[in-house]
Amino acid sequence: MSRAEGSPTGAVPDLWAVLFAFLRLGCTSFGGGTAAWLHREFVLRRRWLDDRTFLAAFALNQTLPGSNGVKQAVLIGQHLRGTPGAAVALFGLLAGPFVIVLGVAALYAGLVQHKIVHDMLDGVAAAVIGLTFATGLRGAAHDTPGAVAWVVVAVTVLCIGVLDWPLIPVVLCLIPVSVALAWATRGRR
Amino acid sequence: MRGIGDSLIALAVVFVPLSLLSFGGGNAVIADIAQQAIAVHGWTSEREFADLFALSRAAPGPGSMLAALIGWKAAGIAGALVATLAFYLPSALLVLAAARLWGRWRGSSWHSAIERGIAPVAAGLFLASGLVVLRASPGGPAVWVAAIVTTAALLRWPGMHPVPPLLAGAALFAMAGAL
Description:
The complex is a heterodimer.
Chain A: H1 15-28, H2 34-45, H3 51-62, H4 68-107, H5 115-143, H6 147-162, H7 167-184
Helix pairs in contact in A: 1-4, 2-4, 2-5, 3-4, 6-7
Chain B: H1 2-21, H2 30-40, H3 46-58, H4 66-103, H5 109-136, H6 141-156, H7 163-178
Helix pairs in contact in B: 1-4
């Protein structure tokens, strides 16, 4: 199996391209929701990996501790260029925000006392929530056709997003069921 | 510089375990970071912590550059570096090890069935994460409306860059705040 598996274009970017892509994303992904920004950049725009690979990485990501965006970046880097790719992705994603946040803290410590800053942050956050929803819906529609898969999506949202049940037990119960359903219907795709 | 050395060790001792305990994402441990930074180690006052938290939210990149800011307050640039590495590296190594293990079985039919079965759960988790942030947002109904409008716009025009709705949303809230 070549590394290009899971890439719609079949192309594998070199390490520098991976570094610059993550550096750029780190500096421009405002408002949190880093995983949604990663999907937009690497699945939709650059087409370096497909929806299924992205979602499989996200599910693995969710069962382990740590910042979701950082873990997803490490997984994408690993998928593209192995361990060096993962290292470059981690560095690239964190370097820009690190410099920016310390620079802003040193220069404009009083910035956050203005109410308008908080209003703008709320606005940015709302737009990023929209990006997250659109990404989830597109991922569900694109890679999981069929009523059964939509039921799994809905049950997951209900348990985690509405009822606030603990994530890990829910995921550990749902994944075997969903995998069994995927296995049972594998001939029909 | 014994004082700085001690602070750096203390930062690592605080942030490494939090990195490995933050199930559900970096936001899960913000309360613990606050307790350690304010009450246990006195790196920041309560007011400073609130400001640093707001600042970390305004910065680009993954949510919790909060670790960098706390480290910076505690021990300057070296502190910022130590806190950032301590908070991100352990969980990154863990996920990397898991991915390498998983990749070994790539290509087998059950591997593909598992990935196909995981996809709807992952999509549901993605949607749920947006919903959880939305419910916790202090902005009220306006945030819900803005989030739903952005969702619809991005589904209708997938190629659209999210910055225009971002800025539109920001301007809207600034205006609403001024009224």
